[in-house]
């Protein structure tokens, strides 16, 4: 083939490939969503309602509520879209995309889901919690910048006290105690905060390939490990138990078993849910936990199961994730 | 016989210093296009796994350095096979092709972690397979006295692609309302263009191999019995032990300067920019001053980066200087090492030899980055960086004595 022929062939095929890509991009941009559900005023104040993120067609990503007893019943859908949402004590936190580019922000919400304040987030949102008083918000993000770090993922926890205006940018600067000894390492990662009160919390810390339940003190800037193989803890309303996901055989690659830890005796009870649950569960009441189970990338349901290992899991809210019981 | 049927001279003497062989430009274009394709996926992969698929921290470590060992071995095998069948272009093309198909694999994998993992491994395997044959083609297409510059041009084009990739990904995401599949499709199309350019414009050099003796494992192993090659390999591995990895360098910079995490990716961008700018001038300088010297000077720049990190000098000036030196380190070592190695290796075993040196460096780096991580744990960041600086000074002195003494007569 002559050079001219090769150039023409290369140019022609390249143009065809680029055109194909552009067409795909445009089609993907206009993939019609099902007609949107009309939005209504959502009440996020304490009361007999469940707040969650809808994954139903027509209201995908929007924050909604159902009544305490009617998970599958009529839902009130707000206009607000979030990737992760939580509410307690009359305050709500919403982690959402910030503009068309892949950046995110944290929105502080009032009881009518009005945005009071926003803060840019560094990374992709993953978990969100509010302290029982409604004053302190905590979130976990995946720090994507660290993908330059040999393709590793890194998680980061931040906190914001809306009453005092103080923030915690990362837990990595807290003094860590591992099995009673001071510990430091470059590979510390934190995720999945659950609050005791505005100053104290539980969370997950990972280092050297192991994951621990930690107890943290915001004022003292300390964290200490309490138990191994605990991820995404969630403290019960009575503050006596923690529900968490326990890596099967200590290896997250094999999935997680939803488990309850009694904080007084440190005994573990595997719950009746045998599917792998990758969520920070929440408490429906002191005897029942609820969590999202994903069926497909954009479809999940909220299930509930007794917290004592008995019974069987069943669907609490179909087409939903990120549940919060507003009466707790 | 007509003039047209007379074989063209390989490289006219008058212009060889000034021009870059068409083959090198073609290979540079392939690398540029392929890097746009692969970096656009790298840039959005974490986002896709977490925001697109809603995967939790399980994915942590999925794309870990676990595969480094496997791809290192594959690189050696690929180099040997390319020499054995005397078809470097075919093996390089296979590597580029596998990576292009891997993009389709990402699309087809959907939410399956195993599928995504397999696609990522395939992508890396393709990269491992193609590097040595590609570098061998560059050395075989360029007269020996212009190798430094040729590699400089190639690496500059390569990093320009790496630079543009994330920007293209952001553009595609913005234009497609955050459709990650559109990024994979675009990346696949761009990767295919890279393979096309390779097929249509890159030439293997069968002529240079025609008279060669057949290649077998015994002859490949005999490479190690040649003094200069053994010295270069030892020097390269020794120097490889002084590299701690981008991740740690950026982490140290970020902590010292107390940069917000949002700026973290910009550290890599700054380094690439310096690499991009200095690759050609330093390659040309290597041709004039001696490649081994420039190569060693590159590691001196790395030592300087460590020294900056070990002192209390901070502020924007320190940050810019460190990134600049770090980019210079890459520009003076990556392609220049190949330019040093090329002429030492017989043409028929060149791919194997280059693969051997690259693998040696990669394994040395793997070891030193793990040791640095441990040092950080034992002594904290300041102790670890001091240890790294001491190691860099020692290995630099050691390999300088070794390499400068055995420099070929040219």
Walkthrough of the structure:
- Chain A is mainly beta and 328 residues long.
- Helix content of chain A is 8%, strand content 48%.
- Chain A has 1 helix and 26 strands.
- In chain A, the strands form 6 sheets. Chain A has a 6-stranded mixed beta sheet with strand order 13-12-17-16-15-14, with no helix packed on it. A 4-stranded antiparallel beta sheet of chain A has the order 3-2-1-26, with no helix packed on it.
- In chain A, a hairpin with a 2-residue loop joins strand 4 (84-88) and strand 5.
- The radius of gyration of chain A is 22 Å and the shape is globular.
- Chain A starts with a helix and ends with a strand.
- Chain B is mostly helical.
- Chain B has 2 domains: 21-209, Growth Hormone, Chain: A (Up-down Bundle); 217-405, MFS general substrate transporter like domains (Growth Hormone, Chain: A).
- Chain B is built from 14 helices and no strands.
- The longest helix of chain B is centred in the last third of the chain and has 56 residues, at 350-405.
- The model of chain B is unreliable at 1-17 and 57-65 (pLDDT under 50).
- The interface between A and B is large, with 62 and 64 residues.
């Amino acid at each position: 083939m002559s050079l001219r022929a090769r150039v023409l062939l290369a140019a022609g095929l390249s143009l065809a490939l680029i055109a194909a890509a552009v067409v795909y991009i445009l089609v993907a941009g206009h993939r019609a969503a099902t007609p949107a559900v009309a939005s209504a005023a959502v009440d996020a104040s304490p009361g007999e309602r469940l707040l969650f993120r809808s994954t139903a067609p027509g209201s995908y990503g929007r924050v909604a509520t159902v009544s305490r007893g009617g998970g599958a019943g009529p839902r009130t859908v707000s206009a607000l879209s979030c990737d992760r949402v939580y509410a307690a004590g009359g305050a709500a936190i919403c982690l959402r995309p910030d503009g068309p580019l892949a950046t995110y922000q944290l929105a502080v919400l009032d009881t009518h889901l009005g945005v009071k304040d926003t803060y840019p987030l560094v990374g992709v949102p993953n978990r969100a919690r509010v302290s029982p008083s409604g004053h302190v918000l905590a979130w976990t993000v995946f720090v994507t910048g660290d993908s330059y770090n040999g393709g590793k993922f890194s998680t980061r926890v931040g906190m914001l006290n809306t009453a005092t205006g103080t923030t915690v940018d990362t837990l990595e600067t807290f003094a860590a105690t591992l099995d009673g000894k001071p510990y430091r390492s470059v590979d510390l990662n934190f995720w999945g905060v659950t609050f005791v009160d505005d100053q104290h919390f539980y969370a997950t810390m990972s280092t050297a390939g192991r994951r621990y339940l930690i107890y943290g003190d915001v004022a003292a800037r300390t964290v200490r490990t309490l138990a191994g193989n605990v991820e995404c803890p969630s403290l019960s309303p009575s503050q006596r138990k923690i529900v968490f996901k326990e890596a099967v055989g200590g290896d997250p690659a094999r999935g997680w078993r939803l488990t309850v830890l009694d904080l007084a005796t440190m005994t573990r009870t595997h719950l009746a849910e045998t599917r792998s649950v990758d969520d920070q569960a929440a408490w429906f009441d002191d005897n029942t936990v609820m969590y999202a189970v994903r069926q497909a990338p954009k479809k999940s349901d909220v299930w509930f199961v007794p917290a004592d290992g008995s019974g069987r899991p069943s669907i609490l809210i179909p087409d939903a994730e990120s549940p919060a019981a507003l009466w707790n | 016989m007509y003039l047209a049927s007379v074989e063209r001279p390989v490289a006219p003497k008058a212009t060889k210093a000034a021009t870059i062989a068409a083959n090198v430009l073609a290979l540079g274009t392939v690398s540029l296009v392929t890097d746009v394709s692969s970096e656009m996926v790298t840039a959005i992969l974490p986002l896709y796994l977490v925001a697109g698929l809603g995967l939790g921290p399980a994915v942590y470590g999925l794309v870990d350095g676990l595969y480094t060992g496997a791809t290192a071995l594959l690189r050696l095998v690929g180099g040997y096979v390319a020499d054995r069948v005397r078809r470097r272009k075919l093996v390089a093309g296979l590597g580029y092709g596998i990576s292009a198909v891997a993009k389709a694999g990402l699309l087809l994998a959907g939410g399956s972690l195993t599928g995504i993992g397999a696609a990522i491994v395939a992508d890396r395997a393709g990269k491992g397979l193609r590097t040595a044959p590609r570098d061998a083609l560059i050395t075989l297409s360029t007269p020996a006295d212009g190798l430094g510059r040729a590699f400089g041009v190639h690496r500059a084009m390569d990093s320009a692609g790496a630079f543009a990739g994330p920007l293209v990904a952001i553009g595609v995401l913005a234009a497609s309302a955050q459709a990650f599949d559109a990024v994979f499709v675009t990346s696949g199309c761009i990767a295919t263009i890279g393979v096309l350019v390779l097929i249509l414009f890159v030439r293997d050099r069968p002529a240079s191999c025609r008279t060669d003796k057949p290649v077998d494992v015994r002859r490949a192993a005999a490479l190690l019995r040649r003094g200069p090659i053994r010295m270069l390999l030892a020097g390269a591995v020794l120097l490889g032990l002084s590299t701690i990895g981008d991740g740690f360098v950026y982490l140290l910079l970020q902590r010292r300067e107390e940069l917000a995490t949002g700026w973290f990716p910009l550290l890599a961008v700054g380094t690439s920019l310096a690499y991009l700018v200095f690759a050609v001038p330093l390659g040309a300088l290597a041709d004039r001053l001696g490649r081994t010297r420039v190569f060693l000077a590159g590691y001196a720049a790395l030592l300087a980066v460590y020294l900056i990190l070990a002192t209390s000098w901070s502020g924007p000036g320190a940050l810019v200087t460190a990134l600049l030196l770090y980019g210079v380190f890459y520009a003076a070592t990556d392609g220049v090492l190949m330019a040093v190695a090329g002429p030492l290796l017989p043409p028929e075993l060149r791919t194997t030899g280059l693969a051997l040196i690259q693998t040696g460096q990669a394994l040395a780096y793997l070891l030193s980055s793990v040791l640095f991580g441990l040092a950080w744990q034992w002594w904290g960041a300041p102790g670890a960086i001091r240890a790294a600086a001491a190691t860099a000074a020692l290995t630099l002195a050691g390999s300088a004595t070794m390499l400068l003494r055995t420099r070929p007569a040219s």
